[in-house]
Design goal:
The chain is an alpha/beta fold and 228 residues long. The protein contains six helices and 16 strands. It has a six-stranded mixed β-sheet with strand order 3-5-8-7-9-15. Strands 1-6-16 form a three-stranded mixed β-sheet, with no helix packed on it. Strands 10-14-11 form a three-stranded antiparallel β-sheet.
Length: 228
Amino acid sequence: MGGVSKAPYDGFNLAFHVEDDERAVQSNRAALAEHLQCSEIQWLNQVHGCEVVEPDSGLALMSADGLYSTRTDIACAVLTADCLPVFFCSRSGDEIAVAHAGWRGLSDGILERSVEKFNCPPDQVLCWLGPAIGPQHFEVGEEVWQAFQGQSLNEQCFVKRDACERLGEHDERWYADLYELARLRLMACGVRQVFGGGFCTFADQQRFYSYRRDGVAGRMASVILLRA
C-alpha cells in the first residue's frame, strides 16, 4: 500500500530486481527508512539458499537468505512475494534474525541455520511467520515433493491433488503448506514459541504482492530491528 511505483508494481515495491523504475524503488525505500526511524537497512541478494549472515557495516549487498544481528544501528530486511518471511528474536530481546524461506530454503535448512546463530538456547527463541502463499494455492510438482522425502515430519504438509494433464504428460501435483512446514521444522530444532501464519499472499490482492498470482509483481519487505 502507498508508495510511488506504477503498475504492475503499484505501489510500495521495494525490490530493484523486478524491473521497476529505479527512482521509484529508491523513493519507497527512503519512505520505509523514515517510517522505521532508521537510516540504515541491510538488504540482501537473495538466492533461495540457506546462508545466514550478519549486517555489513558498509551495507554491502551480500548473497544470502537470512540476517542475524545484535546491532541497534542497522535494520535487517528480506523481500518476498509468496515465499515465507520468518522473524526471530531472543526472549531477552538482544538478538534478532529474519529469513526468506521458500521451499528450497526450508528444505535446505534456512530456519535451522537461523536458530543456530543465536547465543541463547532454541527454547529461548521466539518466531513469527509473516505473509506467504497459503496451502490452498501453493501448488507444487514432483521436484518439491521429492525435496522433502525422507523428512517424515513434513509429509503431513502435502495434500495430493487429482491427477492432471500438463503439456500432454501425466503430472502429479500437490498443495504444500509452507506455514506448517516451518512450524514443524522450528519445533524439531527446539523452538517452542511460534506465532503468526494464516495469511495468503495469493488470495489477498489488496494487501500483498504475489508472484504466483500476477507473474510480474513487486516485492514486500519484512524488516526487524533492535532499538537502543
